[in-house]
Amino acid sequence: MTEAPLLSIENLVVDFATDDGLVHAVDGVSLTVRAGEIVAVVGESGSGKSVTAMSILGLVRTPPGVIRDGRILLRGEDLRAVSGERLREIRGGEVAMIFQDPMTALNPVMTVGQQIAEALRLHDRDLSADTARARVVELLRKVGVPDAEQRYRQYPHEFSGGMRQRAMIAMAVANDPDLLIADEPTTALDVTIQAQVLDLLRTAQRETRAATILITHDLGVVAELADRVVVMYGGRVAEEADVRSLFARPRHPYTAGLLASVPRPDLDGELLSIPGSPPNMIDPPGGCAFHPRCPMARDRCRTDRPELRDLGDGRRSACHFADELDEGSALFSAEEAAG
Ligand code: SF4
């Protein structure tokens, strides 16, 4: 029996009006998240991954953004069609978000403790102030904030970056959400703290059993946490697969390029990146948007836009020649990728 997905995004289209023209940020993205699973959405900056995530909770600013099309179904309820009141109820309740910069989510003029307590009481109006406070202190302890009692009374600026991220995770899991959306949760942190916050995210996910959408450009983070991966390029899904299959045998040249971009210990940790630049989203290249950077591109790729195809075993690829990508084939050599 296949369980209905917890979240299902269908054919999402989001544009942004800019002085230079209309940016086609998300162009027909469909993806699903099942209860309890961690789905990583990866891609370079500008791939549309964050806009896709922000659309779920109605956090795309309009204008300049316009959601042109698509449905976002949470347990069958279309979040694009619900009232503002219902959406506020869902935010921080059934669905919680962890941002790259906790300052985006934390109010600088309220103590950290008060904010988390407020989040709790917003979704449980019968909760007494004392019980809320006790729950917050416990939450802060759980996420590894030392001296939680004292920390409760401090303001966000009195917390270090790593501690702020812990506090935000505490706030996100406070109401036992069904879905967590983590947008580049470790990108702004230094490497040691990154590892601690990743561990914490893993523990939080395990304890709440919340399905998680993890937005990241970091394949190391994907390998650590994700069950399934959706690779985005130029506002579209390029490939989707379970994490092991994706790493073992990418079925889209862009994914192969991303994998070659992982820091390589054999090359003194040098980060190899894909030659060329991400597409101009105002006037994207015709055919396959990746063709100007693709080592496998042929004539057809310049004219014929590849649709996302089902390859079986839960894999999908938007490459005309997905079947020609062999296991272990080195599409991007060190010399090429360093260019
Ligand atoms: Fe490369 Fe063509 Fe596949 Fe696009 S469709 S990824 S250009 S081979």
Oligomeric category: single chain
Query: Could you give a short account of the major beta sheet?
Result: 8 strands, mixed
Helix/strand order: EEEHEEHEHHHHHEHEHEEHHHEEH
Given the C-alpha coordinates, what overall shape results?
A: globular
How many domain regions?
2
Low-confidence stretches: 335-339
Order of strands, main sheet, comes to 6-7-8-3-9-10-12-11
Q: Report the count of strand segments.
A: 12
- Per CATH, the superfamily of the largest domain is P-loop containing nucleotide triphosphate hydrolases
Tell me the fraction of residues in β-strands, as a range.
15-25%
| Alpha-beta content class | alpha/beta
Q: What is the CATH third-level topology name of the largest domain?
A: Rossmann fold
Give helix % range: 25-40%
Label the CATH architecture of the largest domain.
3-Layer(aba) Sandwich
Q: For the terminal residues, how far apart are their CA atoms? A: 48 Å
Rg, nearest Å: 21 Å
CATH class of the largest domain: Alpha Beta
Q: What is the typical, i.e. mean, pLDDT?
A: 91
